[in-house]
Amino acid sequence: MNKRTYINRTVSALIAAALIFTGLPQTGYGAEAVSADNAKISQSADISIGTAEELEELALNAKNSTYTSGKVIRLTKDIDLGGKEFSPIAVMAGTFDGNGHKISGIKMTGKLSETGFIRQVSKGGAVIGLTVEGTISANGTAENIGGITGENEGLISNCIFSGSIDAEKSVGGIVGHNKEDGTILQCENDGAVNARNKVGGIAGYNEGTIDSCKNLGAINSVPSDIGKDSDDEDDTNDDEKDALELIDTNPTDIFEGDLKDKIDVKAVKYTGGIAGASSGTVRNSSNRGTVGFEHIGYITGGVVGYDRGILYSCTNDGTVYGRRDIGGIVGEFEPYVSNIYEEDSIDKAGDELDDMVDII
After folding, report:
1. Which residue has the higher pLDDT, 22 or 126?
2. Terminus of the chain with fewer CB atoms < 10 Å: N or C?
């Protein structure tokens, strides 16, 4: 081997090493794991809630983040709202500590979006140790709806939802839309959740982290009058029932005649036991509920319907139904790889190469 060849190979190796160690980001599995201990709140409560009237007063006052920011709001006992219409808490910028208690009898209907027991949990906000039972039936846009919160940018930990939710898009038993900074930890859905687009037992659409959660509820497994105006409710139900009876009798009729006009089966897509669609992280989570309409729906998975994020250590023991792109774990997986270099990585490699040439 001559001296020039040896130098060229040495330079190439050093450039590669420089790019690896200075240019590439450290890889991992998304956000760092959040332990259950981190979710425990030991400080005293700023606001204590023990009656339906006190809960309604909180919802009335918490119209923006200023009211709840930095505060601990703690339930002191179970509360039954008796099935009357509930106006959700607008923003939680502090900590809502359920303290192991249950709020039952919640009812929300009408033209709803960004809705749940709490509309939005902001950055730095948290909801822990809370069980919510009730019904949410939304029409209109009916987007970003969850049993605990419609949108999450904070922490939802050790929460349970039971009951039913009917909406349109980005709908979950716990969270409708879990944003990039949002974490859902050790939560459970026992409710029936139905929607047309991005529907999951834990989150409809996940961009953040879902960790150690489980779904026992039925997800898009029974037909419902999703997002229909109340004025057309009776006629729509009859049409949908007729259409589904035909589908059960002969699945091939699904695209024939006026059946397609009666129920737009293509509109039902992105359904998952844990998340309907995810570009974030889903880990250590399990589904045991039935997922999907029989013969209806596209991109349906036992854990995630559509995934382009990180998914690992998850299991599905539930039955999964659908029309096409159906999987026991994922309905459709889109590999996504992006190498992001520091702005000065190439410059650093060039400088090191210049130094070597000077030495040689």
Report:
1. 126
2. N
